[in-house]
């Protein structure tokens, strides 16, 4: 897939104020400071589309971007540590879960995992919650340029083994580097394939 256009649409916390659910939609979420904004900017090849920060928890709203005028990329607040109050984090969790459970045009949730780390309980818990709710998701391992491929592969394998304690089959996985723009095309190809299915009218 060639990204020809990527434009900001809206930011809010109210699911009933989101864009009409007429186009396929893909949500990106991960633990705070996982490199989500950098990945979104690299995927869309548009620097500054998603706001990056040295401080975890920069994203605090549901951010919609329309890509090629045919699908939505949604930047969700990170879970886990952030320099904000417990009350704010609780509010984030409420509207994030409401969004994930009620958004009818949501095709897939891309869960970002830091490839440099051993499996983190907070990531595993979130994946298990998605599984319990029957929500489709895939895993994007980030920051592959920060260490050797061997180390990244080892951590990905550990994460897979941890998930297999709860899942019969582990979702599709991607290893990426935003800085070196590695592993991005397979993600876009997967989205493209899902979009084609979304556009096919149901058999009457």
TrEMBL record:
Gene3D superfamilies per UniProt: P-loop containing nucleotide triphosphate hydrolases
Matching InterPro entries: G_ENGB_dom, GTP-bd, GTP-bd_ribosome_bio_YsxC, P-loop_NTPase
Requisite cofactors: Mg(2+)
Annotated EngB-type G domain residues: 22-197
Leader sequence segment: none
Keywords from the UniProt entry: Cell cycle, Cell division, GTP-binding, Magnesium, Metal-binding, Nucleotide-binding, Septation
Protein family according to the UniProt entry: Belongs to the TRAFAC class TrmE-Era-EngA-EngB-Septin-like GTPase superfamily. EngB GTPase family.
Known role: Necessary for normal cell division and for the maintenance of normal septation.
PANTHER family reported for this sequence: ENGB-TYPE G DOMAIN-CONTAINING PROTEIN, MSS1/TRME-RELATED GTP-BINDING PROTEIN
Name of the protein in its database record: Probable GTP-binding protein EngB
Phylogenetic placement of the source organism: Bacteria, Pseudomonadati, Bacteroidota, Sphingobacteriia, Sphingobacteriales
């Amino acid at each position: 897939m060639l990204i020809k256009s990527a434009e900001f649409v809206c930011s809010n916390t109210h699911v009933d104020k989101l864009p009409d659910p007429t186009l396929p939609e893909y949500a990106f979420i991960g633990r705070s400071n996982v490199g989500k904004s950098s990945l979104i900017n690299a995927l869309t090849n548009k620097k500054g589309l998603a706001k990056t920060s040295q401080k975890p928890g920069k994203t605090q709203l549901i951010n919609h971007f329309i890509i090629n005028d045919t699908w939505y990329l949604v930047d969700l607040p990170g879970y886990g540590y952030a320099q904000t109050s417990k009350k704010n984090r609780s509010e984030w969790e409420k509207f994030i879960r409401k969004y994930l459970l009620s958004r009818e045009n949501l095709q897939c949730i891309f869960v970002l995992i830091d490839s440099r780390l051993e499996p983190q309980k907070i990531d595993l818990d979130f994946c298990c919650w998605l599984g319990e709710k029957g929500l489709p998701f895939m895993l994007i391992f980030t920051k592959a340029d920060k260490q050797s491929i061997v180390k990244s592969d080892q951590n990905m394998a550990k994460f897979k083994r941890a998930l297999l304690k709860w899942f019969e089959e582990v979702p599709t996985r991607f290893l990426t580097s935003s800085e070196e723009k590695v592993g991005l095309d397979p993600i876009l190809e997967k989205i493209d394939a899902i979009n084609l299915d979304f556009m096919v009218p149901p058999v009457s």
